[in-house]
Amino acid sequence: MISPSNRALAVELIQEANQNGARMAKACEELHISVRTYERWVADDGVKVDQRPLTKRPVPQNKLTEKEKEEILTVVKHKEYVDLPPTQIVPKLADKGTYIASESTFYRVLREEKMQNHRGRSQKPVKRVPESHLATSPNQVWTWDITWLGGPAKGLYYRLYLIIDLFSRKVVGWEVWETEEAKHAETLVKKAVINEKIKGAPLVLHSDNGSPMKAETFLSLLEKLGIQSSFSRPRVSNDNPYSEAMFRTLKYRPDYPYNGFASLTEAREWAQKFVHWYNEVHMHSGLKFVTPVQCHTGEHIAILEKRKAIYEAAKTKHPERWARGIRNWKPNEQVALNPMRDEEQTEA
């Protein structure tokens, strides 16, 4: 319950914020009250105290006594009932000629005591937090996955293996094969490391839990190359979002052959053209509309600085056309894979 003095202070703060340009709804939100509550508190001649919270209300006739509540807690902890839900406890008690309260009341008491789901040997499930990685420059974190490309007949598919750099979104390696095998993944990673000239450098390679990704021979290769493996949580589809987004972009290209590729050679030729377009032509929205190659090489910094200067000059020339500041052309300083939320950091 908020005291009259605190309400008066809250009203004063909200009015001050509103006079300085803040929206009333936002000012109220900061103090965790609604605009309607504020309006009740405020009268033309000052603060009007809301008397409703101060009203003394009669105790409901059907309210459980403390003794009855204790009886419920004693019963649910009994060896005979400790593993049973209220839907079974209440009938069993009735068979013995005992009635304490309804099933819904049992559930409410258990919820209040945080005993509804985890009594006896039952343990609260541990929430698995996805592996989180931060890239501040290219070739620190890679993500990879395999997608299926339609073949010449129904039920026949080719497999596109593709690795992208988290920071720059550049495709650093790709292969198209007829099957999903660890040996193809090994070839892909070796070529990517050689092409990027990063052998021995610290690197994280993130993927889902497919069999090629977790094969012993593949994991052994990563260890030899000094690459740290990282995996999505089991049965979680969005722990590898950058690779998934890449495949969506790929399959929504206007020239993607929805009827399937006629041969493995045709699939490889199309994939090569797509990778060239994506890396060197496509202006990526997540990179402030520079190409992945420009971001990978560092050229994007000068490009974005030039754009910023052009926008500033345009604003100086016609300031009346700019209600706010210029567009943000600041390059990304870091990119996170599955960033941890505040509550996850607290649990950790």
Automatic annotation (TrEMBL):
GO molecular function, one term: nucleic acid binding
PROSITE patterns noted in UniProt: INTEGRASE
Entries under Pfam families matching the protein: rve
GO biological process: DNA integration
Positions of the Integrase catalytic domain: 134-300
PANTHER family: TRANSPOSASE INSF FOR INSERTION SEQUENCE IS3B-RELATED, TRANSPOSASE INSO FOR INSERTION SEQUENCE ELEMENT IS911B-RELATED
Identification of the protein by name: Transposase
Native organism: Ornithinibacillus halotolerans
